[in-house]
Amino acid sequence: MINFVKNHFLSLNRILENRLLLNTIYLISIIILFTICLIFFLFDKKNKYYNFYYPFLIDSIFIELVIWTIPTLIILGIAFYSIKSSLLINPLNKIYNNIKPLIVEITSMNWKWMIIYPLQKVVSFNEICLPTLIPINLLLTSNSIMNSLCIPKYGIQFYCMSNCYKTVSLLILKHGFCHGFSNNFSGTGSQFLKISIFSTIKKSFFYWINNIQNFNFLSISDYNKLSKPGVFSHPKFFKIRNNKIFLSIIKK
């Protein structure tokens, strides 16, 4: 059902970030090449113009305009492109305003991740499945101390803090598998705060959701037990009756 993709960036955010980085390098290389050519021309003694003297070029306004205008225009172009692209790839912005996104609520615990699908009324621990080519809104918070969610292949890294939440917009282009983790030290078990991430086509995603709906309901005792500090090696899945668990965690 899932093909493992290792050599491709899975997220639109990551592709745009790499394109921005490469285009910026290309633009900066113009200045470097221009400087190298100028230095080579001025200090090359084999150049036939090396020993020539041009008195009328002393204090030339035209030369000053050329040597200052061209680099200035290049730097302004790089700055404009970088600022515009940075605003475009800001993961806090919505990707599509005319398409209803999939809402996924992620809560960090000590030391596990709880993922809630409020509309589908299912919850998973340490495993998340996301559909491709569908806008996704990730809502992040913490049930205890501050942690962070870092998914290198998606190009996102955000902190999860208690009593507040942060929204991340995401669009996945390719199906595959990757890992997420917390790069924030939050205790002796923070190295186990990892999450398995599957990106699948829409049909496989709803198949995954339907399988979870065959599990038991998440009871209050189950939640209290899972919210205590500890780790487990295998993901856990539950269906839920109340889809306001995430809101109650924020307001506690």
TrEMBL record:
<dbReference type="GO" id="GO:0005507">
    <property type="term" value="F:copper ion binding"/>
</dbReference>
<keyword id="KW-0813">Transport</keyword>
<dbReference type="InterPro" id="IPR011759">
    <property type="entry name" value="Cyt_c_oxidase_su2_TM_dom"/>
</dbReference>
<feature type="domain" description="Cytochrome oxidase subunit II copper A binding">
    <location>
        <begin position="99"/>
        <end position="211"/>
    </location>
</feature>
<feature type="domain" description="Cytochrome oxidase subunit II transmembrane region profile">
    <location>
        <begin position="1"/>
        <end position="93"/>
    </location>
</feature>
<dbReference type="GO" id="GO:0042773">
    <property type="term" value="P:ATP synthesis coupled electron transport"/>
</dbReference>
<dbReference type="GO" id="GO:0016020">
    <property type="term" value="C:membrane"/>
</dbReference>
<dbReference type="InterPro" id="IPR002429">
    <property type="entry name" value="CcO_II-like_C"/>
</dbReference>
<keyword id="KW-0472">Membrane</keyword>
<comment type="similarity">
    <text>Belongs to the cytochrome c oxidase subunit 2 family.</text>
</comment>
<dbReference type="InterPro" id="IPR008972">
    <property type="entry name" value="Cupredoxin"/>
</dbReference>
<protein>
    <submittedName>
        <fullName>Cytochrome o ubiquinol oxidase subunit II</fullName>
    </submittedName>
</protein>
<dbReference type="InterPro" id="IPR045187">
    <property type="entry name" value="CcO_II"/>
</dbReference>
<feature type="transmembrane region" description="Helical">
    <location>
        <begin position="61"/>
        <end position="83"/>
    </location>
</feature>
<keyword id="KW-0679">Respiratory chain</keyword>
<keyword id="KW-0812">Transmembrane</keyword>
<dbReference type="GO" id="GO:0004129">
    <property type="term" value="F:cytochrome-c oxidase activity"/>
</dbReference>
<keyword id="KW-1133">Transmembrane helix</keyword>
<keyword id="KW-0249">Electron transport</keyword>
<feature type="transmembrane region" description="Helical">
    <location>
        <begin position="20"/>
        <end position="41"/>
    </location>
</feature>
<dbReference type="InterPro" id="IPR036257">
    <property type="entry name" value="Cyt_c_oxidase_su2_TM_sf"/>
</dbReference>
